[in-house]
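Look over this entry.
=====
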Amino acid sequence: MRQNSTAPRNNKLKPSSNLIMNGSVRVRVIRTLLAIQNGQSLSSVLDPLLNSLHDGDKGFAHALLLTTLRQWHALARLLDSLADNPIDEVEVRTTIQVGLVQLLYLEVADHAAIHETVEAAKEIEFAHSTGLVNAILRKVAKNPSKFRKKCDKKHSLPNWLAYQLKQDWSEQYDELTQGLRQPAPMFLRVNSAVTSVEDYQHALDGAEIDADIVELTTGFKVANSSESAAATTTLSTKGLRLHQSTAVNALPDFAVGTASVQDMHAQLAAPIINKALMAKLIAESANTDSDSDESNNEIHILDACAAPGGKLAHWLELISANDESSLFHVKQDNAETSPAITDIKVTAIDNEAPRIERIRENLQRLNLSQHDLQQADNSIALNIVCADATRWQHGKNKKAATNEPVFDAILLDSPCTATGVIRRHPDISILRTEEDIEQTALLQADILHNLWPQLKSGGYLLYVTCSILKQENVEQMQDFITHHNDAVAIEFTEECSWGIEQAIGRQCLPIDSASGDGFYYALLMKS
């Protein structure tokens, strides 16, 4: 499942040395990179690295690690061209690549980069390689601009992924592959239940943090009643893009839940499914006789694969906001036919206990825990469940689970290869393999097939991934609709200011004007 390195796969690393956080800054970065090549994620090793260092060294270590990962595959190809013979020892390759980054990208003085990297080779017990390390780095130091151009000329992705992107996005290929090796901007989502985007921008100004407002428009077609033609529903999503990434503890009122860090394209999910659900409620209200008892005042929504809880929190913020985005404030021209919602039941599931804890922590900071919701409005009930989305069915236990339609709306933030967020998580290009695509697509299909029967007729499912591979996105949706004749793809209209239109849904690439990550969105209605 995991790709260990550009070196031969039978070259085993020393597992005990990969996690030792002592020695020089460069040695610690090298050991962290070795741990990643052994299958550990960047998110699991970054904090141990930084926490082991003095404050004055953390910035350099962070830049050295992240830049090496972003340029990893390009550096590997450059290294192969510089060596007279193949370098099979992954520790030696890693050490040299760390040295190359200092010379080509971080503008570290030649003598410091070379000397410290040679010393690092000794510290990790590869003293026999110091002559080779020294020779290659000195060669590059003589003409760094030449070798930087050579390194930047092509992509910095594994060849299998570059080939797939060429197949999927031939027109955008060059810009896309270069964009994936750049840092991503930091975005903030403002809690609309607390303040406005404009007011929070002013608060950032007061803290001397520069940020721009980014506004994305979404349009899609829904039927307001069973007898009417589809009408276009539009909504606007606003977020803040910081000019420079900033520690969250420097953000005004971050600790009390006024804002959250969330990519701009990720901020589309909750408003879309929330708006679709509102359209469903209005349509049902229009089709229900005012004297009939068929109207159900309780709605039930599901956030599947919810961790770490950003989209769930956003949805809860919209529901609880005292404005037109709240499900309690759905209005029509005829007030007598307005849906009277008295209870909203929210279920969130994820399959790992630590990730469930992350959800709870994030909701706690945002004052959106079950306790907070009950105090603010006892009409909202939140249930967070640790469960496998390929098998989980609504019910308190297996005997009670019926797999019958219960949900009015489902937000499925589907597992994926995460190729759309490589800018933020450059370890993905090392950890992923070509085989992962097929296995992930099968997992996505299993989840869809399990959840779809639990969606009510007329309900909506929003399918979301942070992938830019069509097999996980539009092709997955095409296959699903082929096998489910009650699934109708909702058309995103030309009012959308984001993404590229697909046969089903829209695809965001991390190269558009908003600068958001690669996300795919498809909205399905159950007929």
Observations:
- The longest helix spans residues 269-286.
- Residues 51 and 58 are 8 Å apart (CA to CA).
- Confidence is low (pLDDT under 50) at residues 1-18, 290-295, 332-337.
